Amino acid sequence: ESKKINWPEKFLSFLKKKIDDGKNKKEEETWLKEDRKMILLKGISLPSIIENCDGKITINAFIDVSASCRYLTKDFFDLVSSLPSNFEKRIYAFSNKVSEIEKKGNELYYKFNNDTKFSCIEDYLLESKYSDIVCVFTDGIGGVVRPRMPSRWHWFLSEDQTHYVPPQSKHYLINEFKKL
Question: Are 5 and 17 in contact (CB under 8 A)?
Answer without folding.
Answer: no
